[in-house]
Design goal:
Layout (H helix, E strand, L loop, with lengths): L1 H13 L3 H4 L4 E6 L4 E6 L5 E2 L6 E6 L6 E8 L6 H7 L8 E4 L3 E8 L2 E10 L2 E10 L3 H14 L4
Antiparallel strand pairs: 1-2, 3-4, 4-5, 5-9, 6-7, 7-8, 8-9
Length: 155
């Protein structure tokens, strides 16, 4: 029984996120068409994963367990952050929500993932970063998500 407990503890330790296993290399990702930029952990999100609506890029981890979308899109209706968020179909049990006159940030769980969205509003554009990562690695991702979120900016 004790050997099983040690094996379980070892397995959990072995599953520790690559986020904390090695130093994170950061670069600035910019969208030239809109002036959006964000600090981007390029050592974590190593693979391009397509383009979102509007301008930007999706990336994912090599093992596909996490992804990030950096995008800008026109705010056609010139919505406030609160109005824009109200129009979007979000899961009903949002765990975290902050809305100001200039941005919103929301987060929750969807299946075995945490999703986090932050959108800044400037002029007639919405500048967003959307991140999905394993819920069982949530604490490992806290500092990474915080840095990404706070670095989102536009010209």
């Amino acid at each position: 029984m004790r050997a099983t407990a040690w094996a379980m503890a070892f397995a959990c330790a072995a599953l520790a996120s690559a986020v904390s296993a090695q130093p994170v290399r950061w670069t600035t990702y910019s969208i030239p068409q809109t002036g959006t930029s964000v600090d981007f952990p390029s050592s974590i999100f190593t693979e391009e994963a397509g383009q979102p609506d509007g301008y930007g890029q999706r990336f994912r981890t090599a093992d596909g367990r996490a992804d990030i979308t950096i995008q800008s899109a026109p705010n056609i209706a010139n919505d406030s952050p609160a109005a824009f968020l109200a129009k979007k179909h979000q899961p009903p049990r949002i765990q975290y929500k902050r809305v100001t006159p200039r941005f919103f940030a929301v987060s929750s769980y969807k299946g075995d993932k945490v999703w986090y969205n932050r959108c800044n509003f400037a002029g007639r554009l919405v500048h967003c970063v959307l991140i999905n990562y394993p819920a069982n690695e949530e604490h490992d991702w806290d500092d990474v998500v915080t840095r990404i979120s706070l670095s989102l900016r536009s010209k």
